[in-house]
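ugh ok fine here u go
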Amino acid sequence: MAETRVASRYVKSLLGLAVEQNALDAVHNDMLLFAKVADENRAFALMLKNPIIRHEKKRDILDKLFKGKVHPLTLAIFDIITRKNREGILIDISKQFHNAYNAYKGIGKATVTTAVPIDAALRAEFGE
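structure:
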């Protein structure tokens, strides 16, 4: 519970900074990429949460994986979080950032149930 609260504070700060620097969409895509890597690679997720692995080593791994592929602001937040010894909440931050992004952009989630298949034109209307 406390980790979720801490993660939400980082998310709010990152969202505000990304908006200020006109990098919101780039940082959002970076967070989606990070969440995907963590979801698809269990060893990576476990490494982040492992207290035995030194924080410098975790920062090096994050740099090698993401440097040149993500916005500098994203790398900066990775660096700050690893310096604060909070790598274990990075996955939570990436997922919470997606929710905060959607809330900021006014994007809602809906489920549509129909008796007949939906054609592409109608599906596109729902996407708007």
